[in-house]
């Protein structure tokens, strides 16, 4: 690709608008000279998802910005894609997509409630269903001769990304837990698994000699952050 000044990646946002704006302003993104990748999970658990939803809608087509799909976007999509088609019929069977999204800890109910309170629920749901359909499950980028793979959750380093299933890319955690499994040459950048769950501090982690990068720093935790890193220099910015 054309020369860029910074290869920036943002970890999971999870509806935390204030924290996201704090770190985004610190980074001072310049889409003309920076390439920016968002690893997904824009929604759920945070108290203020609607401004995040509006911001992503506004910036989705911006030059040099890539918005990947996370498992929380997938839950949103599977839960609400038939919203309005069966008025008054809400599927809360134990195995239904909405029951998973609304389950304690998932954070979907908080998002759904905030959308309803916005007074623009029908528009936001429809716009985000269309947006999620456009979100890729991965990005593969080469800068200065180095190949980078970006996925939300996990991947098999030995298999082309295009051949990997959505369950692995959106939900699994093998590389985050066992980074030594990666014996190839590409740098793989992941969200999804909070570094705190792996007993690291609340900063992005470069593991396996820098070949596996973990960017989820617990944005929804009391002592967590939303993080951004320049992969070319390992410079890190974090929300307060």
Question: Nutshell version of this structure?
Answer:
The chain has helices at residues 17-27, 49-59, 71-80, 97-101, 108-117, 121-134, 166-171, 174-177; strands at 6-10, 34-38, 65-67, 138-143, 146-151, 187-190, 205-207, 212-214, 227-230, 235-238. The chain is an alpha/beta fold. The strands form 2 sheets. A 5-stranded mixed sheet has the order 3-2-1-9-10, with helices on one face.
Main beta sheet: 5 strands, mixed
The radius of gyration over CA amounts to 17 Å
CATH class: Alpha Beta
Silhouette: globular
Gap between N and C termini: 33 Å
Fraction in beta strands: 15-25%
Give the overall average pLDDT: 93
The total count of strands amounts to 10
Residue windows where pLDDT falls under 50 for at least 5 positions: 84-92
Q: Do you know the CATH architecture?
A: 4-Layer Sandwich
Give the CATH H-level superfamily.
Answer: Metallo-dependent phosphatases
Query: What's the oligomerization state?
Result: single chain
The number of helical runs is 8
- The SSE order reads EHEHEHHHHEEHHEEEEE
Residues in helices, as a percent range: 25-40%
